[in-house]
Amino acid sequence: FSLFRVFKKTSGNGHIALYLGKRDFVDHVDSVEVVDGVVKVDPSGLNGRKVFVYLACAFRYGSEDLDVIGLSFRRDIWIQYVQVYPPVDGNATKSPMQESLLKKVGEQGCPFSFKMPTNLPCSVSLQPGPNDAGKACGVDFEVKAYLANTASNPDEVIEKKDTCRLMIRKIQYAPANNKSGPKADISKQFMMTDKPVNLEASLEKEIYYHGDPITVTVKVKNETSKVVKKIRVSVEQLTNVALYSSDTYTKTVCSEEFGETINANSTFEKSFQITPLLSNNKEKRAVVIQLHTVSSTYHKEMQGIIVSYKVKVTLMVSGGGDVTVELPLTLMSPKPAGECTFNNLNV
């Protein structure tokens, strides 16, 4: 039998304990893994109250420690509540993980599960600057068990000792099938020239894994009397914060210049490689860090933080003026080999 770790958090009063079999839940684009777990309940300490669990997806834009004037630095994007004690659905189907947890917890275990909609963002955070304090701005997911009379009465005060919570992550992996990459071209004519500079750029595949070099093929047909002095290849991260407004931030996460000369009335073709790495961007404020990886967001029409990338190829031409073409880029992580099954639990 294999041994698996279980994540556990107990309330300050010891009357409830939250158990999860994992903290990473995969978004398959058309569906999201069910978030399920168990709450161990000691009925003797409830004093007539019930036990609820909620799963919340929230956008945070400041440190909770700064909440000194009643302002909220956290806004819920989506939230769902379930009552686990007294149980309201005693015949609900239990997952293999829940069955294993209930054997470990005993008769006081109460199972719960949540099904997330597909339009929620993945877990991400905006990297703070070197002098920024507090929590980073971003999107996170929280599972919380608590004692209360009702699930979500804003007038009911719930003390911290009556709660226990665990942070989870919603993540994405690259699809198994990788398609051929995008291609783009542009022609630019300069003053005092009759013919243009033609630039074409292409990627060899649609999806690249984090840490892998990105191969960009560049083709140039220079029909002018000007000389191309250098070629710059860069990767930009575009972050759309689609919540309190529709702000878009663009950060260059990788850029290299190549001293290739393309003479007048000549052609050129060559492939270049660049590798964007988070380790090279740790001093840049507002670079998005996927809590799993810095990944492209594979959804549309969602709230929160939406991440995309693009490759820019720029020809630097003598006498001033650049020729630039852009390509969409998808950066993701491969699906790990093998699947976990819950045979034995280590709490």
TrEMBL record:
Keyword terms: Sensory transduction, Vision
Domain of life of the native organism: Eukaryota
Annotated Pfam families: Arrestin_C, Arrestin_N
GO MF, any single term: G protein-coupled receptor binding
GO biological process: G protein-coupled receptor internalization; nervous system development; signal transduction; visual perception
RNA-binding keyword on record: no
PROSITE patterns tied to this protein: ARRESTINS (PS00295)
Assigned protein family: Belongs to the arrestin family.
Xref: PANTHER family: ARRESTIN, ARRESTIN-C
Entry protein name: Arrestin-C
Lineage of source species: Eukaryota, Metazoa, Chordata, Craniata, Vertebrata
Name of the gene this protein is made from: arr3b
